Amino acid sequence: MTTPMTPTLERVLDRLSMMREGKFDLGWMYANADGWGTRAAPSSSGLTIGDINVGKYAIIPQRGSAHGSMAPRGSEVPRETPALGTYDVDDRGTVWADNCAELYEEAIARQWSSARDIPWARLEELPEDIERSVCQLCTQLTEVEFVAGDLPAKWLWRINHDFHEVKLFLASQIFDEARHMDVFRKRALANGGGLLQASPGSERLLRVILEAPNYTVASSLMHILAEGFVLTLFRHGEFLAPTVVEKTIFRLCMQDEARHVGYGTLHLKRFLQEHPDRTEEIHHILDVGEEAMLELSLESTAIEPRLILAGGGVDRMQEGMMKTGFLFQKQVREYLHRLKVAGLDRGERCRLPLELPQ
Amino acid sequence: MTAPRFPSLAWFQRLADAMAAQTEKYRRLGPLDLTLVVRVVYADGRDQLFALEFDGARCVSVTSPATVAAIRGRHPVIIEGEYAAWKEMVESIQANQGADLTHTLNFLTLPDWPLRLVAVDEEQGQLDVDRFYRYQASLQAFFDEAAAVETRFAA
Fold it and tell me: Which residue among A105, A255, A341 sits closest to B134, beta carbon to beta carbon?
């Protein structure tokens, strides 16, 4: 079979001939002269992505590169480099957070395996109402967790490559959420129970998150409101855990979720610093999200399993109510504190009551 | 060697030494960047502060600041509670070779009782407290080192 001669093949063969004759280009060796001679030094955690942000490589542009390619920030980009046509989220204020490099490294260092790192052999047979409650909790968490994978994935491919730290962090978050979805599914299916009922209230909140009109609004809703609430639920899961298996699952998930919340808080802070005129956009989406969250918090599939676990049985749910009264207040208080750190005062406008009537 | 008394600089230093002796275990758990300040409140109202400065996979400094204003170190967060609660936690760790289900750091702090988390830096506030959640497995492993520390209690 003869390969058809095309202009591209012709160019490649010409180039090969020149190389055979000893005619090399070597222009790349002296490209990017002001970026040469860099010696980034490791910090106490090793050589991190933050440690290599030195000299010209540390400049995070207000507007991502106009060439619209995947060319690395700080490299020399040839004039003929083609734009890839997707990287239109290119405003620093809409994606950046000062802690994203740190959080990415932390995420990589704190990866865990749901197959290896959970002591599955220590599962114990539980009373049926307790097992059913654990399984319902796991059903709901399996259902909601991957929205924090799907949502970043929806925007990730559009974020300009000059903000690679953000992209790396979001990639780590997608993997965290994959693990959360898998570990809760595994727990539901590992101890004689199974998945129980999906949640319409969860789906309503998930829709608000997925349909958010832009990345920043979506992130505020997901990273700060939703994941902030879930972080407290993970802490509560650890608190209620009937065995060391659930204890370990929730402890490890808690760590991951706290990183996501940390990114969201400093991302919103940066956004409000660079775009104070867009504060109302954030308020508006949180108005919608808080109401959806409030409804979801009191949906029977969400609250009743926790009351059973807190009380110690289906016949002691009212006792469980007394023992979990603090939880909602804590969720709202921490949520408002994070918004305050970000520079958003939501005190008067918050749709979530600071306390639920006893 | 005389058993250190809880709480004391020597006692917390023993935990820090145990951490330093297991670099691979703590590297695998992940790096920390936090100053956790243990505040022990006694029945007569006196209190003592012990600042544990974590950097990377090590507890690089154990000090006893005289006041909250004297706390140094990055991202300080206070974990405070009465002496009896701390004592019970340490005894549980020693009896079970690690905290049991109702004596983990998270269990004891979630309802803000018997232990409570307080951010030192007003501006960072919740962000610093969130670090306590981010490093939970490492911090629990650190306190679980108490299982191997022969301990004298003040009362």
Answer: A255
